């Protein structure tokens, strides 16, 4: 399958497994799960045919591991990033001492004033490494990376979760736990 086709299917799945499942007649179960056969049927009925093989390729080859199957292979879900109401059934986890958040340079003034907010999503997304955060920040302009003192946040009883694809999630990151990094040296400004 071409990279373009993989991308189109991934975007379609993101839209309907994270943001608007009802648009194609799906209802997410607890954990964000939907039956694979139901997804394939709903997609076909709505003019976007996906084969099971294509679905497997998207899950296996997605660079950000956005989707996963349950152990039986009969259910699929988006791992995080939902804007639709759903209980993701995430378990609290102890984070590493430092996590990273990538954003675009336009967002920096707001973040320095109010911290990191989940906006329309269920959580703030954090990365375990600087490069991943930079890649996230590149999507909407010049990337800026913030180091998050997750150790201090955890000690202050903020609850962290880790999604199946390794993304760290938290409800909010107050300004006092953030430190902007220099884009070239990765050292604090």
UniProtKB/TrEMBL annotation:
<protein>
    <recommendedName>
        <fullName>Probable RNA 2'-phosphotransferase</fullName>
        <ecNumber>2.7.1.-</ecNumber>
    </recommendedName>
</protein>
<dbReference type="InterPro" id="IPR042081">
    <property type="entry name" value="RNA_2'-PTrans_C"/>
</dbReference>
<dbReference type="InterPro" id="IPR002745">
    <property type="entry name" value="Ptrans_KptA/Tpt1"/>
</dbReference>
<comment type="function">
    <text>Removes the 2'-phosphate from RNA via an intermediate in which the phosphate is ADP-ribosylated by NAD followed by a presumed transesterification to release the RNA and generate ADP-ribose 1''-2''-cyclic phosphate (APPR&gt;P). May function as an ADP-ribosylase.</text>
</comment>
<dbReference type="GO" id="GO:0006388">
    <property type="term" value="P:tRNA splicing, via endonucleolytic cleavage and ligation"/>
</dbReference>
<dbReference type="GO" id="GO:0003950">
    <property type="term" value="F:NAD+ poly-ADP-ribosyltransferase activity"/>
</dbReference>
<comment type="similarity">
    <text>Belongs to the KptA/TPT1 family.</text>
</comment>
<dbReference type="InterPro" id="IPR042080">
    <property type="entry name" value="RNA_2'-PTrans_N"/>
</dbReference>
<keyword id="KW-0520">NAD</keyword>
<dbReference type="InterPro" id="IPR022928">
    <property type="entry name" value="RNA_2'-PTrans_KptA"/>
</dbReference>
<dbReference type="GO" id="GO:0000215">
    <property type="term" value="F:tRNA 2'-phosphotransferase activity"/>
</dbReference>
<dbReference type="Pfam" id="PF01885">
    <property type="entry name" value="PTS_2-RNA"/>
</dbReference>
<keyword id="KW-0808">Transferase</keyword>
């Amino acid at each position: 399958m071409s990279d373009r086709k993989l991308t189109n299917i991934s975007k379609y799945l993101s839209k309907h497994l994270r943001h608007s499942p009802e648009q194609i007649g799906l209802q997410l179960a607890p954990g964000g799960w939907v039956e694979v056969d139901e997804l394939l049927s709903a997609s076909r009925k709505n003019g976007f045919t996906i084969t099971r093989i294509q679905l497997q390729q998207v899950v296996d080859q997605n660079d950000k591991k956005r989707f996963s199957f349950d152990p039986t292979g009969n259910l699929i879900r988006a791992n995080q990033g939902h804007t639709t109401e759903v209980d993701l059934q995430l378990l609290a986890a102890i984070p590493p001492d430092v996590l990273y958040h990538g954003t675009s340079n336009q967002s920096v003034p707001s973040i320095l004033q109010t911290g990191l907010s989940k906006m329309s999503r269920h959580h703030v997304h954090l990365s375990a490494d600087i490069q991943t955060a930079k890649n996230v920040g590149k999507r909407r302009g010049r990337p800026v990376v913030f180091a998050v003192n997750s150790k201090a946040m955890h000690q202050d009883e903020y609850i962290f979760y880790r999604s199946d694809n390794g993304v760290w999630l938290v409800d909010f990151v107050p300004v006092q736990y953030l430190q902007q990094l220099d884009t070239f040296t990765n050292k604090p400004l």
